[in-house]
């Protein structure tokens, strides 16, 4: 057992120098959910059959006729099959011994907490689904959900799936304008929100934001408002209704609608390389198969586990690995409303101790923040219940990996670094903890049945290049809502019939994948996708701005931070006040997650002869490689000289 030989008091620097590999311990292998070495070869022989076997673990009202219909770039999985997601997440558990098991353990930021058993959740979802149905919500309608991290959020999602409506969940940190844009695009007529939510000791005014968003969205006829903070809000008569009133006289049972495997399950908006967010389309049978199987095997889910994914349900990680994967597997899933530093920087570890969390899934940016805060915070708590750790959202640097393994995991918990995207629906590159020898910083190998490869520009397999997926997988996106051309252009045009991820990657001598980050104009800020063009459009929307170019620059904690090069209109002074105003303007247009760290006023932006902004050059400047002083670039000569140097370099 190689891990056991590493004592927990060995300094981290020494571990890093050793370039160690971490094979699973014998004890872990013995009881692992998936410990069959042949599984990769089995899946490779017939990946469709492999996924069919996984799909059979779900409850189907009607079996499928054909497992896969692949007409690139469109895949249909489990064609002709009928199932319901909420039935799989609830009904089949309440019919058995899991009925009184905790489904959801919820902790509010102020310290309040609720535990909902499968039976509790089943009742709540039935009632809310019945109320939606009575209100006229129909199969195929799109319901927008803009809520804090409270149990009613998954309740609303599951209720939608129960009646066959699709949800579009919008992260609570998005601005009213961003909410409006997404409501418009999805053509939602019903919005579910709350008066507010708690965050870092304060509140987020979700209802107020919704009101502002709806000023430009007359198509929305109903707003359901959950009371969470109790702050006064305006209720528009005829449109707004409190959650409690909405469900008051609704029936206790609402039958789960048999859905076609390929029926729309949800839309989730994410940033791409243009200014407009894309509504990623996920459907029912394939998605649920993918999230359920990956959740069980990768997190080595056992009946006595208490599983906690720290993401927000507003992102795909929360959809797949707080709600659907865990509940379909009948697991106990923990959900926390607030930030990790409230009331103190030990909050996460208090939660682990309080609920005896055994599996914890978080993001590298959080791990790096915990490293910066210091070991004293986790050391205050008993973390001995933990047995498996996970990471997602961005490349994890080996130092953070080893810190996580040693300080949080006490040197005994495997760390699974899981690569995937909103578009992929579920994890695709990952260790299986009972089989895979871990290497800090590598997401290791494709999940069985997944065909990932690294290709060069010409499409030949390479040691370093672009990450692609060569075969369809069940949870893959089925398109971009209302924009089929963009779907083809974005993902299927670089190589014939091969999915292009937008990520760069390397492979080592063992075939392991090492993710290198995005190769397109998408930034990854604290694990969140933000498009450079979205921020640029927000900036040029300001009256003082003539032109803007945005890049992601390296950042110790966030992975990338946003730097914006701005050319102001003539007669405008690039003052520190304007800098602050522009940062605030971007936050107002998109949300605080897109607020630039740096605004650099520049009299000219370096462009190629064809007018393309030289982002690599700007990155050099922002990261301090080309210029000492990065606060202002007023002298066009500086840009010009950098530009010619750059062009020479490129030639
Ligand atoms: O660049 C990759 C990075 O996050 C992108 C997907 O972002 P999003 O759709 O918001 O989904 C995030 C959660 C699944 C990817 O294109 N990414 C995600 N996980 C990893 C990662 N990069 C490296 N290693 C990972 N484990």
Tell me about this structure.
The protein is an alpha/beta fold and 651 residues long. The chain has a domain of 129 residues: GMP Synthetase, Chain A, domain 3 (2-Layer Sandwich), CATH 3.30.300. The chain has 22 helices and 30 strands. A seven-stranded mixed sheet has the order 5-4-17-16-18-19-20, sandwiched between helices. Helix 6 packs across helix 8. The radius of gyration is 24 Å and the shape is globular. The N terminus is likely disordered. Bound molecules: adenosine-5'-monophosphate-propyl ester (PRX). The site of adenosine-5'-monophosphate-propyl ester has 22 residues, from helix 13, strand 20, strand 23 and strand 24.
Could you give a short description of this structure?
The chain is α/β, with parallel strands linked by helices and 651 residues long.
Backbone shape: globular
Number of helices: 22
What's the CATH architecture name of the domain at 522-650? 2-Layer Sandwich
Ligands bound to this protein structure: adenosine-5'-monophosphate-propyl ester
State the low-pLDDT regions, or none.
1-8
Q: Would you give the CATH topology of the domain at 522-650?
A: GMP Synthetase, Chain A, domain 3
Based on secondary structure, the structural category is: alpha/beta
Top-tier CATH class of the domain at 522-650: Alpha Beta
Chart the SSEs and their pairings:
Elements: H1 2-5, H2 12-18, H3 26-31, H4 39-45, H5 47-55, E1 66-71, E2 74-79, E3 82-83, H6 85-94, E4 102-107, E5 113-117, H7 118-134, E6 142-146, H8 152-163, E7 166-169, H9 176-186, E8 190-194, E9 197-199, E10 202-204, H10 206-214, E11 222-226, E12 240-242, H11 243-247, E13 259-260, E14 264-270, E15 278-283, H12 285-298, E16 306-309, H13 316-328, E17 332-336, H14 347-355, E18 359-362, H15 364-373, H16 376-379, E19 388-392, H17 398-408, E20 415-418, E21 452-455, E22 464-469, H18 484-492, E23 499-507, E24 513-518, E25 522-525, E26 528-531, H19 532-540, E27 545-555, E28 559-568, H20 576-589, E29 598-602, H21 615-622, E30 632-633, H22 636-650
Parallel strand pairs: 4-17, 6-7, 6-8, 7-14, 8-11, 11-12, 16-17, 16-18, 18-19, 19-20, 28-29, 29-30
Antiparallel strand pairs: 1-2, 3-13, 4-5, 9-10, 14-15, 21-22, 22-23, 23-24, 25-26, 27-28
Helix pairs in contact: 2-17, 4-5, 6-7, 6-8, 6-13, 7-8, 9-10, 12-13, 15-17
This protein binds adenosine-5'-monophosphate-propyl ester.
